């Protein structure tokens, strides 16, 4: 089959297996080069990534495995390919990760299913035991130190529209809406360059509560509890969940909207976890953080009003200043300069944070000069100059690349088997 991107209203409904695979390999090469030269005093050896197949979760897995040599268990919810239909991008990313990890001798297990369910939490505990056995088989042959089935790092990187609470079986749905009053913001149709105004009605109380249920911190806490109860969480375990704050002009729809309420709950959960850890000498070495990451092009962010417009201008400014980053650059910097930087690798209290205890790798995005220049640019964009003054082309490229399209070196005219990554 020949696959060309099918995009409408900033949503792409297909993807290209070979392009997805090439992007994963590119991220592997980047992080190998950037991280493996200077190992931290203590690097994570067994890492669990919840939401491992795309975006920040995939980068977190790649950096832990190929940067630090960690064994990884990844969980995601993806659609497999059939002989007549391609799978989802995350499906191909996982296949590529698994195959590259196997080639590099890095133990890796990928589980597909609903991370919110009790069943997936139980399967993960078993997978952690299995992967440890796998690791130790190789370690015995190489005379290397053995691993215990205890996770050193848990990355919580889910982005989901729905969640079924395993305790009551009720399905909750998240929405991206403002709170209190209607929001209207510009966005760019990346395929045509057209500037459109998108509106969103204010959320109901129920919609706010449901979004918190899906994207808040409850499930993160359930995961840590489940791992702890099963005895598979190390005494020094670190856990991270990701959030976004962004510029004030997006707050009505993001930070002060439904999703922001959910992210507030994520921060509540981080604090609750730390309180629990500190309560006993056996768990006092564990630590949870929320990391504030940079705004990037993902399948989800492309449909939020104002975000494509803002990101197209932000990227232009950051690229001009030579400080632009994608997911893998962000996570590499998160590990190298924050989570495992110098003494922080040994002592979690030394991990650099803001006054709220959050890790900030959105620091370059939020720099005053960057924000000011981005705002000025946004005010000067018209439909006539949008292609030349913004980085809409970069936005479009990143979006297509997240679906395996517009990747250099891939022959998009070639007939391919959707079940193979080459
Ligand atoms: N994209 C951004 O600009 C940005 C910026 C800062 C923070 N963040 C945050 O980072 C986190 C990850 O976002 P992303 O943009 O990388 O998302 P993404 O859509 O690329 O990845 C989401 C992952 O969650 C998995 N997933 C979704 N529902 C699942 C389920 N029920 N069970 C198992 N797996 C499931 C998907 O398979 C995928 O692996 C989110 O918390 C997001 O808010 C994103």
Structure description:
The chain is an alpha/beta fold and 422 residues long. It has a domain at 12-160 and 205-306 and 325-362: Rossmann fold (3-Layer(aba) Sandwich), CATH 3.40.50.720. The protein has twelve helices and 13 strands. The strands form four sheets. The protein has a seven-stranded parallel sheet, with helices on both faces. Strand 3, helix 2 (55-68) and strand 4 (71-76) form a beta-alpha-beta unit. The longest helix has 25 residues, at 118-142. The two termini are 14 Å apart. Nicotinamide-adenine-dinucleotide binds at residues 51-57, 75-78, 90, 114-116, 157-160, 242-244, 293, 295-296, 298-301. Nicotinamide-adenine-dinucleotide is lined by residues 51-57, 75-78, 90, 114-116, 157-160, 242-244, 293, 295-296, 298-301.
């Amino acid at each position: 089959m020949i696959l060309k991107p099918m995009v409408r209203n900033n949503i792409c409904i297909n993807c290209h297996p070979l392009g997805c695979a090439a992007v994963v390999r590119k991220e592997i090469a980047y992080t190998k080069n950037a991280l493996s030269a200077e190992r931290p005093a203590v690097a994570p050896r067994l890492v669990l990534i919840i939401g491992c197949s795309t975006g920040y979760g995939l980068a977190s897995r790649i950096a832990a495995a190929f940067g630090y040599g960690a064994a990884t268990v990844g969980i995601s919810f993806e659609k497999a390919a059939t002989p007549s239909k391609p799978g989802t991008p995350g499906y191909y990313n996982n296949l590529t990760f698994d195959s590259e990890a196997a080639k590099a001798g890095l133990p890796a297990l990928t589980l597909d299913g609903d991370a919110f369910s009790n069943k997936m939490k139980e399967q993960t505990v078993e997978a952690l035991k299995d992967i440890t056995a796998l690791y130790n088989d190789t370690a015995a042959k190489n005379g290397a130190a053995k691993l215990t089935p205890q996770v050193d790092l848990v990355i919580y990187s889910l982005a989901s529209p729905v969640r079924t609470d395993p305790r009551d079986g009720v399905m909750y749905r998240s929405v991206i809406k403002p709170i209190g009053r209607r929001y209207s913001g510009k966005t760019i149709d990346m395929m045509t360059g057209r500037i459109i105004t998108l509106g969103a009605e204010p959320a109901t109380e129920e919609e706010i509560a449901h979004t918190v249920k899906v994207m808040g911190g409850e499930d993160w806490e359930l995961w840590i509890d489940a791992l702890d109860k099963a005895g598979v969480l190390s005494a020094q375990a670190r856990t991270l969940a990701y959030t976004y704050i962004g510029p004030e002009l997006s707050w009505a729809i993001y930070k002060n909207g439904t999703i922001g309420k959910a992210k507030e709950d994520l921060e509540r959960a981080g604090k609750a976890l730390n309180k629990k850890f500190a309560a006993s000498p056996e768990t006092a070495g564990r630590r949870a953080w929320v990391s504030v990451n940079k705004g990037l092009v993902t399948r989800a962010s492309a449909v939020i009003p104002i975000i494509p417009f803002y990101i197209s201008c932000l990227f232009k400014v950051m690229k001009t200043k030579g400080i632009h980053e994608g997911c893998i650059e962000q996570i590499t910097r998160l590990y190298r300069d924050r989570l495992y930087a110098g003494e922080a690798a040994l002592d979690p209290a030394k991990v650099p944070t803001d006054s709220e205890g959050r890790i900030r790798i959105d620091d370059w995005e939020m720099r005053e000069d960057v924000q000011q220049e981005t705002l000025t640019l946004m005010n000067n964009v018209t439909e006539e100059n949008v292609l030349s003054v913004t980085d809409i082309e970069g936005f479009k490229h990143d979006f297509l690349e997240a679906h395996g399209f517009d990747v250099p070196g891939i022959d998009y005219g070639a007939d391919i088997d959707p079940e193979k990554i080459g």
